[in-house]
Write a structure and sequence with these properties.
Blueprint: E1 12-16, E2 30-32, E3 37-44, E4 52-60, E5 64-69, H1 76-85, E6 96-103, E7 109-125, E8 137-143, E9 146-150
């Protein structure tokens, strides 16, 4: 990629540890939530009310949100979601690593974000409407502990 080329947002890939990395488990139409923010605590200095200190607390992340066309139950992602949501917490939730990669025209990564200890926290299907000719879309939201930018 030339130094002056800017990446386009529509060419990206998502990989999930344990999935084969192809087909439905790698194809998403939208990925959002790649964000880190440091929480700030405001402390007023005692006896010197004119001094206010803004101190860092912890890094927080919003949920990673992935959207795609509704797929079959044989998908590894669907199996993971079913194991998380349908076991009534009789088994431990299994966190996994994920990578979201922005790609250039040749398919090579120009930026990647590693997501550690992700697990599904919301799984929904878009509304149905007999008057629309649209693909059914499922949305999966993941909580995660760490976001690292590479490449």
């Amino acid at each position: 990629m030339a130094d002056l080329e800017l990446p386009v947002v529509f060419h990206f890939a998502v990989s999930i540890a344990g999935a084969d990395g192809s087909g439905a488990d790698a194809a998403f139409r939208e990925a959002t939530g790649l964000e880190s923010e440091i929480e700030i605590e405001t402390v007023t200095e005692g006896g010197e009310n004119r001094f206010v200190h803004r101190l860092p607390k912890a890094v927080k992340h919003p949920n990673l949100v992935l959207k795609r066309g509704l797929t079959s139950t044989s998908s590894e992602l669907v199996k993971w979601c079913k194991a998380t949501f349908e076991n009534d917490f009789t088994a431990a939730i299994t966190p996994k690593s994920m990578v979201v990669s922005l790609r250039d025209a040749e398919g090579d990564p120009v930026a990647s974000w590693s997501i550690d200890r992700a697990y599904p926290v919301k799984w929904s299907v878009g509304g149905f409407d007999a008057m629309k000719n649209e693909i059914a879309v499922e949305t999966v939201e993941f909580a995660y502990n760490m976001l690292k930018r590479s490449v």
